[in-house]
């Protein structure tokens, strides 16, 4: 058994730092909020630095008897997970402000979820995958109901917990069937079993239930029902976190298990993925039309974008995997930018601004913020020349090269339909009269992130196509 502890140094930094922050919080109380906030950000920055310094093109190989792997695929995912988690922690600092409910446990909970997500993208065993998934999920349930005096937050936490428990049961049942009919929990062993024998009824049921559980984690239709309610009810910084880091972790976890463990059965699971992709694109586009809450709208936008990423998964092969990785990287930046703009807006009474009608005339009262939000909306819609166009083009090219031309055509049509609600926000900000005086939070670091992310998704982002594409290709190659 290989005990390569340097390969898991980023996780060790987070794991050993977490109890120190918890002890600080327990001894100092709410006075420790700033300490745990910036301490957690420092831990994530240190883990990212170690991740970059210790990663090698040759990859770390299987670790601890084959339950984990330290490869370029995991490095790629962890970097974006750590980035999104750090931004969600920093953004919450000013959003809660003097709210007594914002305590030192918030960044610690995100840190625990981040450790779970890190394990999810590195797991090469069903057991390890489930341990990481549950660590992330348990912390997420608490975060959703973080504002204990807010009925909507409590409702979001309860819905997330109940539906998440159901999905975990479905996933666990599917994994138990895979183990029962293959005799192993390792991805390589499952792949070997699928390759050497015909797809039996037991294996087929295991495959279906496993993908059903994974679909819940990525918010793919028909297991998307929790997403709009949880996004709306959770505190906006928590929603920012849910829409970014866990989405990357869940999508990369799905990509690894599909390519490494279930690769020989691609003809069987491709049908499931195609259905989920099309259903997510169509429902995510159409259901967002009548939304009046911007967080619910962005929830359906998330479902819609996951549908496009699933087109790359359905394409399969290194090209499809690379397209998914590229898509998720750009998606994280666009989503973080959009939610940071929402976090920056408050009503005159200091309450969060969440209704679409409250964005009317924003270009006249807050022109800079309106311009940034417009850039993120156009980019999410995939309108050229903004950078959000490029990842959609990559997944469509992967589908065409895999012979799924009709899937690419339907995806393109879905892009056109989905553009409506993004353009609706632009129309409200630039063509309607103001209905109030929206206040902008004085958060210099948050504003700096908004400006940086807006530059990345602008046409200047095309300068990143080469390095980001090369990184995605290298990461995808590690799966094959």
Automatic annotation (TrEMBL):
Entry EC number(s): 7.1.1.-
EC category name: translocase
GO MF term set: oxidoreductase activity
Record's keyword annotation contains rRNA processing: no
Keyword Transport tagged: yes
Domain NADH:quinone oxidoreductase/Mrp antiporter transmembrane: 123-417
Membrane-crossing segments per the record: 35-56, 62-92, 104-121, 158-181, 201-226, 271-290, 297-318, 324-345, 369-390, 402-423, 444-465
Catalytic activity from the UniProt record: a quinone + NADH + 5 H(+)(in) = a quinol + NAD(+) + 4 H(+)(out)
InterPro entries: NADH-Q_OxRdtase_suN/2, ND/Mrp_TM
Keywords associated with the record: Cell membrane, Membrane, NAD, Oxidoreductase, Quinone, Translocase, Transmembrane, Transmembrane helix, Transport, Ubiquinone
Family the UniProt entry places it in: Belongs to the complex I subunit 2 family.
Cited function: NDH-1 shuttles electrons from NADH, via FMN and iron-sulfur (Fe-S) centers, to quinones in the respiratory chain. The immediate electron acceptor for the enzyme in this species is believed to be ubiquinone. Couples the redox reaction to proton translocation (for every two electrons transferred, four hydrogen ions are translocated across the cytoplasmic membrane), and thus conserves the redox energy in a proton gradient.
HAMAP family reported in the protein's UniProt record: NDH1_NuoN_1
Assembly: NDH-1 is composed of 14 different subunits. Subunits NuoA, H, J, K, L, M, N constitute the membrane sector of the complex.
Name by which UniProt lists this protein: NADH-quinone oxidoreductase subunit N
Gene assigned in the entry: nuoN
């Amino acid at each position: 058994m290989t005990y390569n502890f340097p390969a898991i140094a980023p996780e060790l930094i987070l794991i050993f730092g977490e109890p120190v922050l918890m002890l600080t919080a327990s001894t100092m109380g709410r006075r420790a909020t700033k300490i745990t906030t910036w301490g957690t950000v420092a831990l994530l920055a240190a883990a990212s630095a170690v991740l970059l310094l210790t990663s090698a093109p040759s990859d770390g190989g299987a670790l601890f008897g084959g339950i984990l792997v330290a490869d370029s695929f995991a490095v790629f995912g962890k970097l974006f997970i750590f980035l999104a988690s750090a931004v969600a922690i920093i953004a919450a600092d000013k959003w809660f402000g003097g709210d007594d409910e914002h305590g030192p446990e918030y960044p610690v909970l995100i840190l625990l979820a981040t450790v779970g997500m890190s394990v999810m993208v590195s797991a090469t065993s069903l057991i390890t995958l489930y341990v990481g998934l549950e660590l992330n999920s348990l912390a997420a349930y608490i975060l959703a109901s973080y504002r204990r005096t807010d009925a909507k937050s409590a409702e979001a936490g309860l819905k997330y917990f109940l539906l998440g428990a159901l999905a975990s049961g479905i996933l666990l049942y599917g994994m138990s069937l895979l183990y029962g009919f293959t005799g192993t929990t390792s991805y390589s062993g499952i792949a070997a079993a699928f390759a050497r024998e015909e797809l039996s009824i037991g294996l087929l049921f295991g495959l279906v239930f496993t993908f059903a559980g994974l679909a819940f984690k990525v918010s793919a239709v028909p297991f998307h029902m929790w997403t709009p309610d949880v996004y709306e009810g959770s505190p906006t910084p928590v929603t920012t976190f849910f829409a970014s880091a866990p989405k990357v972790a869940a999508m990369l976890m799905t990509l690894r298990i599909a390519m490494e463990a279930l690769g020989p059965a691609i003809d069987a699971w491709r049908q499931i993925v195609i259905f989920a992709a099309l259903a997510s694109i169509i429902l995510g586009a159409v259901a967002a039309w009548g939304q009046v809450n911007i967080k619910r709208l962005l929830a359906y936008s998330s479902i819609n974008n996951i549908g496009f990423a699933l087109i790359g998964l359905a394409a399969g092969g290194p090209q499809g995997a690379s397209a998914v990785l590229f898509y998720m990287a750009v998606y994280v930046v666009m989503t973080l930018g959009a939610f940071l703009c929402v976090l920056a807006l408050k009503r005159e009474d200091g309450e969060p601004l969440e209704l679409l009608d409250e964005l009317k005339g924003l270009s006249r009262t807050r022109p800079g913020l309106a311009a940034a939000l417009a850039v993120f909306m156009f980019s999410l819609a995939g309108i050229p020349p903004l950078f959000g166009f490029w990842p959609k083009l990559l997944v469509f090219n992967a589908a065409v090269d895999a012979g799924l031309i009709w899937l690419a055509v339907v995806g393109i049509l879905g892009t056109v339909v989905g553009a409506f609600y993004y353009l609706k926000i632009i129309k409200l900000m630039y063509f309607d009269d103001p209905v109030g005086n929206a206040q902008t939070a004085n958060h210099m670091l948050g504003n700096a992130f908004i400006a940086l992310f807006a530059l990345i998704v602008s046409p200047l982002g095309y300068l990143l196509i080469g390095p980001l594409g090369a990184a995605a290709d290298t990461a995808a190659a590690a799966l094959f």
